[in-house]
Amino acid sequence: MLALADADSDSLAYVSADCREIVQTRLGLDWASFGEIAHQFKAPATRAELVLAGAIVASTPGLGSETEWLAADAPPSLAAFLRGDLAGERRGDDVAHAWFDLLGEMIVSTRYDPWITRDSGAWMAYGDGTLVVGDVGDADWEEGGSATDALTALAHASFLMHEASHGVVPGHVPCEDDPDVTCDATVDGAYGVQAWWLTSWLTAYEWDVSEETRILGYTLRYYACERIEDHDGFEPCGG
Ligand SMILES: [Zn+2]
Hints:
By secondary structure, the protein is mainly α.
């Protein structure tokens, strides 16, 4: 798989049809629930395409080696997943393989549900191997960035990693300052994994992408870190 490296390019066009086929099969993408018929695409534009593009971005090679990430103090449950995987010798040296396996192992089926709206405060939901996608493709970032296809593919990638990690990390808790909102008590949670994944993506690509995409990456990571009650010493959230 190749990188969806820049917001302004159609580099997804260079991802092979085989690769896209593998990704949609692993995620059990239910095209019909999205109101779409399974199809090939270049630059992602529809909701189902953005989910696939996000999964491809999430597992793009070049994000560093698994051993590097383990050495750098990953969230403990994620580290256990990576270690188990290393022991199984199932992949190469790039942590992107681990990200893809996390997605593929945790998400068995993927469908659209219009009841998940931005007003509900959630973009996606996950339970028992099923990923439910709402209106995340309609992202209209407060910072004024227009949500181009690649920007939302990056957002999808980070949300996909968050949701898939629910299969391996402790669940959310009510936030201390607003019990109606969900947080993680420590970095060992879905927000920690999301911040961790964004750091690996930013480390690899922040100087290869447009300023808009870079800012989106920082913004997504900032919001993930805001939802971790205690992230002292956690590098993705500023140490
Ligand atoms: Zn969550």
